[in-house]
Amino acid sequence: MPLFLDLPDEILIQTISCLSLRDIHSCQLTCFKLNAIIKGSPEIQYQQALEINGFEDNPDSSHLSPTEKLEKLKRSAKAWRKVKPMFSHTVPITNPTSGIYDLTGGAYLLGGLRRLDLHTLVLPEAEDEDAEPVWKTLTVEESIVDIGVCIDEHDLVVVVTSCVAIPPVLTYPDTEQKQGIQRSIRIQYLPTITPVFHW
């Protein structure tokens, strides 16, 4: 009767690859052959490195060999461990704020407490920039519900607003007048906070 360890290495690697990180470690401790197979398999090493670093496999990298993927992952993990800001800059927040905010594409967006304002700040890209960062404010007439950004591609901010819509007065005595919620979408160009679209 053949033993598990008599199987070809390729089948052992595929089998071990289905195990959890803890179980792979346990296999390494059982015998020299499994330890050597696990340490020598880029596929298993890549799977372990993904789990240890909290990464997920990128399906777009299927053209890379497991060895290439493992090297890229190791470089990325090393870079994240050594990440340090190039400079820091403190900008005071002078307006009361709501829970609406976003930090993306070199811009910080912060909703005002009354939900009628959106404060924006283009963040400095280098320490030696001469201009002091300046808050700009977009004020709307309706309550801001949410924001969406498309900063990297087009420098645009989408502001979703809401207000109570009151229908026109009806003259029929038996007709009930109902209020509704009216939603609006504003698309603003970020650097100048100028409107692009509003509907």
Describe this structure in words.
- The protein is an alpha+beta fold and 199 residues long.
- It folds into two domains: 4-81; 97-198, no CATH class.
- Helix content is 30%, strand content 29%.
- The protein has six helices and eight strands.
- The strands form two sheets. Strands 1-2-3-4 form a four-stranded antiparallel β-sheet, with no helix packed on it. Strands 5-6-7-8 form a four-stranded antiparallel β-sheet.
- Helix 2 crosses helix 3 (32-40) and helix 4 (42-53) runs parallel beside helix 5.
- The longest helix has 16 residues, at 66-81.
- It is elongated, with a radius of gyration of 28 Å.
- The N and C termini lie far apart (75 Å).
- 12% of the residues are buried.
- The model has no long low-confidence stretch (mean pLDDT 81).
Termini Cα gap: 75 Å
Helix content: 25-40%
Query: Structural class of the helix and strand makeup?
Result: alpha+beta
Going across the biggest sheet, name each strand in turn: 1-2-3-4
Number of continuous helical runs: 6
Mean pLDDT, all residues: 81
| Poorly predicted ranges | none
**Rg to the nearest angstrom?**
28 Å
Number of strands: 8
| N-to-C order of helices and strands | HHHHHEEEEEHEEE
Looking at the structure, what is the overall shape?
A: elongated
